[in-house]
Automatic annotation (TrEMBL):
It catalyses: guanosine(37) in tRNA + S-adenosyl-L-methionine = N(1)-methylguanosine(37) in tRNA + S-adenosyl-L-homocysteine + H(+). Belongs to the RNA methyltransferase TrmD family. Homodimer. Residues 6-228 form the tRNA methyltransferase TRMD/TRM10-type domain. The keyword Methyltransferase applies. This is tRNA (guanine-N(1)-)-methyltransferase. GO terms for cellular component: cytosol. S-adenosyl-L-methionine binds at G117, I137, G138, D139, Y140, V141, L142. Keywords: Cytoplasm, Methyltransferase, S-adenosyl-L-methionine, Transferase, tRNA processing. Specifically methylates guanosine-37 in various tRNAs. It is found in: Cytoplasm. The gene is trmD. It comes from Pseudomarimonas arenosa. Pfam families: tRNA_m1G_MT (PF01746). GO terms for molecular function: tRNA (guanine(37)-N1)-methyltransferase activity.
Length: 259
């Protein structure tokens, strides 16, 4: 029986990571032992009276930079905490954009160690010596890496076997099959805001699957042409999309109108 995948998070705010694991699918996955998440207080590895973990940047400029040694000592302890090899990820705006494909890849690793930066970031020498890859959750600047780490723990956690009630929902996720998700409807079938598309109540599952695929392709064409450009569409997909575009142009007339 292989041990559950393990994620260690090095941070100045372990309570932030722990609180995000008390709820929802990932909180339940951790309680079920499908995934173990351990957060480490970086200040425990600073040994001066003030538990200093940062200092002014060489070359001047605003803000502070996180020191090498507290991080290095903490990483050493974290690596020794489990015999399995650790893949060290630093969350930063300089990282590779986080995508579902990257999430899937990281979700298959036995051990992840997530480094959460604060202030201006971490001394480059520590990153060069200890970090396997840098990952960014988006082109904007947070006050700390904890939110990004929590995003990664959630995205990886929900893909662990048994985490989702119905594994099918992961298969049908946005980006899982390269395109955006289709619209979803539930009770009531009739509402002053509109009726559920009749086809969805027809029970004709082949037609329903085609409609959902067409909606996914159409929305991706409208909202994320960059994502569609990365898809290798089947002939059937191209046919579905062409029908969608024709109907859309007929109905709404011209690019730019939001659907
Ligand atoms: C970030 C991001 C991010 C930069 C300075 C923490 C902050 C501070 N991390 N994706 N975007 N990090 O903004 O991952 O140290």
């Amino acid at each position: 029986m292989t041990a559950a995948p393990r994620i260690d998070v090095i941070t100045l705010f372990p309570e932030f990571i722990e609180s995000s694991l008390e709820v929802g699918v990932v909180g339940r996955a951790v309680k079920r032992g499908l995934l173990s998440v351990q957060s480490w207080q970086l200040r425990d590895f600073a040994h001066d009276n003030y538990k200093t973990i940062d200092h002014r940047p060489y070359g001047g400029g605003p803000g502070m930079v996180m020191l090498i040694d507290p991080l290095r000592e903490c990483l050493q302890m974290v690596r020794q905490a489990d015999p399995r090899p650790a893949h060290v990820v630093y969350l930063s705006p300089q990282g590779q954009p986080l995508t579902q494909a990257k999430v899937r890849e990281l979700a298959h690793r036995p051990r992840l160690v997530l480094l959460c930066g604060r202030y201006e970031g971490i001394d480059e020498r520590l990153l060069q010596a200890e970090v396997d890859e840098e990952v960014s959750i988006g082109d904007y600047v947070l006050s700390g890496g904890e939110l990004a780490a929590a995003v990664l723990v959630d995205a990886v956690g929900r893909l662990q076997d048994g985490a989702l009630n119905d594994p099918q929902s992961a298969v049908q996720d946005s980006f899982e099959n390269g395109v955006l998700d289709c619209p979803h409807y539930t009770r009531p079938e009739r509402h002053e805001l509109g009726d559920v598309p009749a086809l969805l109540a027809s029970g004709d599952h082949r037609k329903i699957a085609r409609w959902r695929r067409q909606q996914s392709l159409g929305r991706t064409w409208l909202r994320r042409p960059d994502v569609l450009a990365r898809c290798d569409l089947s002939a059937d997909d191209r046919q579905l999309l062409a029908e969608f575009i024709a109907e859309w142009r007929a109905q709404d007339g011209g690019p730019g109108a939001v659907r």
